[in-house]
Amino acid sequence: MYTDPIADFLTRIRNAAKANHKVVEIPASNLKKEITKILFDQGYILSYKFDDSSVQGTIKIALKYDKETRESVIRDIQRISKPGLRKYAGASKLPRILNGLGIAIVSTSKGLMTGKQARQLNVGGEVICYVY
């Protein structure tokens, strides 16, 4: 039993990327599925598949690597808002990661989105994680 399933999700992706695994399998939840879709849309993962054959279901994520250097496209993935200390930011205070090279995933009233999308829609929310 783990108290922070999102941190576990991010750690599994981070560890698989560092170990040069092609695929990582993670227990599913709706929030994890949305984060996976954002990572795919932003080009950080190659593909994903939701497997709902069991009660909870799983997410299979194919990690993306650079062709020349064979390094993971995900350099780092960090949990920001934790269960013990939530981090919120208004639309004007949303962070820019590596001067726009990375993304912040934000949970807003309009759903999960990147920090850039939240700034465009002028909504703030809970900063879930940084990816770069």
Automatic annotation (TrEMBL):
One of its GO terms (cellular component) is ribosome. InterPro entries: Ribosomal_uS8 (IPR000630), Ribosomal_uS8_CS (IPR047863), Ribosomal_uS8_sf (IPR035987). Pfam families: Ribosomal_S8 (PF00410). GO terms for molecular function: rRNA binding; structural constituent of ribosome. PROSITE patterns: RIBOSOMAL_S8 (PS00053). The keyword Ribonucleoprotein applies. The keyword Ribonucleoprotein applies. Transmembrane segments: none annotated. Keywords: Ribonucleoprotein, Ribosomal protein, RNA-binding, rRNA-binding. One of its GO terms (biological process) is translation. One of the primary rRNA binding proteins, it binds directly to 16S rRNA central domain where it helps coordinate assembly of the platform of the 30S subunit. Part of the 30S ribosomal subunit. Contacts proteins S5 and S12. Belongs to the universal ribosomal protein uS8 family. HAMAP family: Ribosomal_uS8_B. This is Small ribosomal subunit protein uS8. It comes from Flavobacterium aciduliphilum. The lineage of its organism: Bacteria, Pseudomonadati, Bacteroidota, Flavobacteriia, Flavobacteriales.
